[in-house]
Design a protein that fits this description.
Number of helices: 18
Number of strands: 14
Helix content: 40-55%
Shape: globular
Length: 518
């Protein structure tokens, strides 16, 4: 049995994703697999009486235990503002002191994570107490996401087949012409379903359009400059905003940075290395404990994880509910606890159960990553993730199989445990209904106020080198380093918290690139 075709699951398994609960991953995983509660299903329709989108007056209504919610309009296509409109969902936590310095907009990552639900359910973890006290804090669902005008592709049963079923390409050897034909057909069918169920919106969920939405939202709240906190993919939104509107940059914090110049294949390469290194850090720690399910030395223990993946690749496990655990699902389960060091103990249980032929722990962890609870996908995270990424990375719509084979061989060489399960991801977006529109150009934000870039040395999802690169690209970028493990650092380290909170309150930044927290 070969691996899952490089469709939705492969592209998402190792990704830039920082779903809305990533900052609380350790706590939530050790408690229960629970979705973030939805804010409110329906809101008053936005007021139609405006001549410019920035003149809208949000109709805030009480929601989500002390929050305020509103929907506002944005143009479907910013090049045609007189054309079709979409809606954007906002959730606001009003400044606790009653006299806000302004508004901080927050994006938790993804792409595809709900900023509205993130603020509604996790405000204490999203921003520090000084920010909550002195700013209105707004999370919004970007276009294509959640309760904004959203991407829709399949129902829950169809998603289960994609993520946890066995499809035609599973019976073929990956990388062969026959496999490519089957994988391309499956990817194209997914894209066609998204277009049929989403409509014209599917062409306009790119980050450049979201940047224009964000500038509109800044104007709607009356701020002359944007104050912003972006995690993971949210740093890409912030960086592109700063480059487009440097004169409108207020206080921007970009935590868990993406490198705006990285291609899709480079992202997969760097993240594969990042998760391989993080798994190695976990195994190193595991070997110090008597209950560790693998045995040393370290290379031998890593090889045991690789052998487990190979065994499941050859013969998938079956969960107690009948779903399949392929090597792709197992890899997703491995990656999920690596986002937060506090979740590493789940890897002990995962190995022990999977090695014993039990797929339920793997399904539990994969469900958490895929936002699935009791058979229901709580959000459209996976659909939006695919749609946004396929527009954000250049794609000719053609497949160079020789290049994909070479990239797959490189991944195997640089990440001996998981790399061989990460190749051929380029097949998915090559079959998307629309080609990519982003150019992956560097950013500079010339003339902008200081921008704080936070990088974690042991971050598996957004490797530290990306934070270094982003800070170097930004003319006013200031790098702050957290020496530790896990994805993103604000809210996880007192030193980082003090720097970020102080910056939001006063605008003060440390000496350029000289600050290291541990």
């Amino acid at each position: 049995m070969t691996r899952r075709p490089p469709g939705l699951r492969r592209f998402a398994a190792v990704s830039a994703a920082a779903v809305a609960v990533t900052a609380a991953l350790g706590t939530l995983l050790l408690a229960a697999c629970m979705p973030l509660p939805r804010t409110i299903e329906t809101l008053p329709k936005p007021d139609l009486d405006f001549s410019d989108f920035t003149e809208q007056v949000p109709q805030w209504v009480a929601c989500a235990d002390g929050m305020q919610c509103a929907d506002v309009f944005a143009p479907l296509d910013w090049a045609d503002p007189e054309g079709e409109r979409i809606t954007l969902r906002l959730v606001k936590h009003p400044a606790e002191n009653g006299s806000p310095l302004g508004t901080v907009f927050v994006n938790p990552g993804g792409p595809g994570a709900s900023g509205a639900d993130y603020i509604a359910s996790y405000i204490d973890g999203a921003v520090g107490a000084p920010v909550r006290e002195n700013y209105d804090v707004i999370g919004w669902d970007p276009r294509g996401v959640g309760d904004s005008s959203a991407v829709s592709c399949f129902d829950d049963a169809e998603f289960d087949q994609i993520l946890y079923g066995l499809n035609e390409s599973d019976t073929l050897e990956e990388g062969t012409d026959a496999w490519l034909e089957a994988a391309s057909r499956e990817s194209a069918e997914f894209g066609e379903a998204c277009l049929e169920n989403t409509g014209a919106l599917l062409e306009f969920v790119d980050t450049a359009s979201t940047v224009q939405d964000l500038d509109m939202l800044r104007a709607l709240v009356g701020d002359a400059q944007l104050n912003y906190l972006g995690y993971s993919y949210g740093t890409y939104i912030g960086a592109r905003y700063a480059d487009a509107y440097p004169e409108r940059v207020g206080r921007l914090v970009l935590d868990g940075a993406l490198d705006p110049t990285s291609t899709e294949s480079e992202v997969v390469r760097e993240q594969t290395i990042g998760f391989e290194d993080s798994l190695r850090s976990y195994v190193t720690d595991c070997l110090t404990r008597e209950e560790c399910p693998v045995t040393g030395p370290i290379d031998a223990a890593m090889a045991q994880w690789g052998a487990l993946l190979d065994a499941v690749d050859a013969e998938p496990l079956r969960g107690s509910d009948g779903r399949w655990v392929t090597s792709s699902t197992l890899l997703t389960a491995i990656i999920t606890p690596l986002y937060a060091q506090g979740s590493w103990p789940w890897l002990d249980e995962l190995y022990a159960t999977a090695a014993n032929g039990d797929g339920d722990t793997a399904l539990y962890l994969a469900d958490f990553y895929n936002d699935r609870v009791d058979g229901v996908y709580q959000t459209n995270l996976m659909e939006a993730f695919s749609a946004i990424n396929c527009l954000d990375y250049p794609s000719s719509g053609e497949i160079d199989l020789d290049q994909l084979r070479a990239e797959a061989a490189e991944l195997d060489a640089i990440a001996p445990t998981i790399g061989r399960f990460q190749g051929f991801g380029g097949v998915f977006c090559a079959n998307w209904p629309f080609t990519g529109v982003e150019t992956r150009e560097p950013v500079s934000a010339s003339g902008a106020e200081p921008i704080l870039v936070v990088g974690t040395t042991g971050d598996p999802a957004t490797p530290y080198r990306w934070a270094v690169s982003l800070a170097e690209q930004l003319e006013s970028g200031v790098l702050v380093t957290y020496e530790g493990e896990g994805h993103t650092a604000y809210g996880e380290n007192a030193c980082i918290d003090a720097i970020v909170d102080g910056y939001f309150l006063t605008g003060a930044v440390p000496s350029k690139d000289a600050t290291v927290c541990s």
